[in-house]
Amino acid sequence: MALIAALKRLISAPKATRQLKFTPHQVSRMAEYQKWTRADLINRIFELEGKDPSTAQGAVPDPPVKASKAKRNESYDISRHPVRKIAIRFSYLGWNYGGLAVQHEDTPLPTIEGTILSAMQRCRLIPESASLFDLDFSRCGRTDRGVSAFSQVIALKVRSKLSPEEQQDAANDNKELNYIHILNQLLPPDIRIYSVALRLPEGFDSRFSCEYRHYRYFFHKGDLDIDLMRQAAKLYLGEHDYRNFCKVDGSKQLAHHNRVMLEAEIEQLSDDIYYFNLKGRAFLWHQVRCMMAILFLVGQKLEKPSVITDLLNPEKYPGRPVYDMAHDVPLVLYDCTFKEPIEWITPNAMPQERMENSNFKHWHDVMLQSTLSLAMMKHIAERTGSERTFPRAEDGDSDRVAVVNGSGSFSRKIPYVPISKRKMLDTPDVTNEKWRKRKEATQ
């Protein structure tokens, strides 16, 4: 009965004075008992005292299962609870995700929406079997793989703590579920929800209720001519046909590619970091990355600013000339503004100290990695005596250049072919027709 005596001493002795001695046979099992609660240990003693001492030498059993909790989980029916439509505003770093939009099929990387919806299912805010249509789901600005957002918005129906009648009274808002706190506990640190709207305008849709979207594309100055890039950026302002600044998707069957740009400027963030500041009512697929790619060519003096005016003319370029898009990672959906005012609230989602610690930890890790990376590159530059930021054409070989794409790497040095001499892709009309024929052939 030495095991029983040891258990009793473990319960009664203060934690600081529990200096117990066990036989080698008991050591491995006692390590498991250390994890048990006081109540579980007492129950185990009662169990052992009612058995033959030889039985006490058997394997340590698993801790008791709290049947009541398991029973509650099995009987929980989300359909019995009231629902309400809310909008959430959140930020994310898209580097480790396969884009924003949830996909019907498996993807190599998780998506932002898939991660958020999974968290909502885990905390029973939405049913596991619900479709996006059932949830009345909408998103503001779709971002592709690698692209981040500082202010993204989605709207959907979720479980509510309040009855439909209670939801009508704004005085009850502070009694509602703390959606921010609940979700941020389950989401990874590179996805952060920071405000919620409980009272949306009638018929609110995150996409169609948006007045304009605001993007920023960050880049290192290097050897780029910022003044030329600023001249070129201004040519994007106003309404234009952007067929040559996007990837044409035949499945969309778009009749036109006109878009309105409200702001288009090159701004300075720090000594060597700039960003392309762009606001527009709506955007085409990969439009910002294509616009930035041409600005890089202008900044390298490979093209004149007037190339933008030419590309915006569908009579001169009925199809897009072949060129590579700018890199995805530096692109950020910076903000979005809606036609009607939205009452965003940011409750005290968690105790202030805990919230600050959580945010600081993630910021500190990213800051430290960035600082060390810059220090290492500076160290290498000092040791090698190299001050060049971008690869340049070799002496006597001025037609061979390294084209900047915003990723920090460069296209291999090849003779540069001006945009005006490049092959053009199919026009949007031809692309749409080809897609229709392929669809008809498969029906």
TrEMBL record:
CDD domains, per database record: PseudoU_synth_ScPus3
Molecular-function GO terms, alphabetical: pseudouridine synthase activity; RNA binding
Coiled coil stretches, renumbered: none
GO CC annotation: cytoplasm; nucleus
Keywords, alphabetical: Isomerase, Nucleus, tRNA processing
Domain of life: Eukaryota
Pfam family, one: PseudoU_synth_1
An individual GO BP term: mRNA pseudouridine synthesis
Compartments where found: Nucleus
Family according to the record: Belongs to the tRNA pseudouridine synthase TruA family.
NCBIfam families for this protein: hisT_truA
Name used for this protein in its record: Pseudouridine synthase I TruA alpha/beta domain-containing protein
Lineage, top ranks: Eukaryota, Fungi, Dikarya, Ascomycota, Saccharomycotina
